[in-house]
Design goal:
alpha+beta, six-stranded antiparallel barrel
């Protein structure tokens, strides 16, 4: 049909009629006067719609399948990730048990010494080259950590806090050559100063050059003024060697620390010092000496010797 004035008028008229019918149908609801015509149209055009739907549905289903396939892929990837995490968790049971053991041991130490501690995990270790021994822990100023706080674990003295960030802190380890702590010997109360020597035993200078010291004696921290940087009573180590007294003003000892500085994981920062010095109560129980087996040798006289001893003079046994 050509685009003429009459055709445009006819189009406008048809559109107006269509809108009128739609309005009447909506207002009539179920009693709409055009309901019969709609049913007739459905009867006539229904098979055609079904045919078109049958032709189009495979395409729609294919699109849905692709979409669902993507969803299934994402779900599968998520499940695989969750399974991997679960396997990692199950595979790390030994490590979790180790951490739990470390935590229990540290809580026992803090309870015996009455230390208020903030638990932390070691997240980085400093380079040991050039005798620089430090670790980074995952607590900082937001957790109440401050510079010059004592750090310990379930074995004893770890070090002291030197730098504090919002959520992490640096700890100078007790075996660093720049680290010095006041010590007190168990029992005798002899005072001294321990200095780190890297992977070698701590070097301790006792103030009393004539102090009676022997291998196996134990030391704890003496404590600092206002408990910073060191609180008292934290186990330091065991004397492994004593230098001969040579008339010097001090006496030199070498102490094997309780803490293994190369395998730190769970530590605690002392955020509250004990109300009184715990003295030696935090030291571990001394190992029981291994009894030395006693060998008893019983000598039984030989039969020949007995016969000679009991034979009468002139008789041959």
């Amino acid at each position: 049909m050509r685009d003429t004035r009459e055709s445009r008028l006819l189009l406008v008229l048809l559109i107006a009629i269509a809108f009128a019918l739609i309005t009447v149908d909506i207002r009539g609801g179920e009693d709409s006067p055009v309901d019969g015509a709609r049913q007739v149209a459905a009867t006539v055009f229904g098979p055609i719609e079904d045919g078109v739907s049958s032709a189009v549905n495979p395409v729609g289903n294919a699109v849905s399948a692709v979409r669902d396939s993507g969803t299934r892929h994402d779900r599968l990837a998520r499940l695989e990730t969750e399974n991997a995490a679960l396997k990692a968790k199950l595979g790390s049971d030994d490590r979790n048990r180790s951490r739990l053991s470390q935590l229990d041991k540290m809580l026992k130490v803090s309870a015996e010494g009455q230390y208020g501690i903030k638990g932390a995990q070691v997240i980085a270790i400093g380079a040991a080259q050039g005798f620089s021994w430090t670790i980074t822990i995952d607590v900082g100023a937001s957790d109440g950590i401050k510079r010059d706080m004592t750090v310990l674990n379930g074995d004893g003295l770890v070090g002291r806090v030197t730098n504090v960030g919002p959520d992490a802190s640096t700890v100078l380890l007790a075996n660093d050559p720049d680290f010095t702590v006041g010590t007190r010997m168990e029992g005798s109360d002899e005072l001294g100063f321990a200095t780190g020597q890297g992977d070698r035993p701590l070097r301790v200078e006792l103030l009393n050059s004539k102090a009676d010291v022997k291998k196996g004696d134990r030391l704890v921290t003496f404590g600092s003024e206002a408990d910073k940087p060191f609180v008292p009573g934290v186990p330091v180590g065991v004397v492994s060697r004593v230098d001969p007294s040579g008339g010097d003003l001090t006496r030199t000892l070498y102490v094997t620390p309780y803490v293994g500085f190369s395998k730190l994981d769970i530590v605690g920062v002392v955020v509250e010092a004990p109300k009184k010095d715990p003295r030696d109560t935090v030291l571990p129980n001394k190992p029981k000496p291994t009894p030395t087996p006693t060998v008893t040798v019983t000598v039984t006289p030989s039969a020949t010797a007995t016969d000679f001893a009991t034979a009468s003079p002139g008789q041959t046994p």
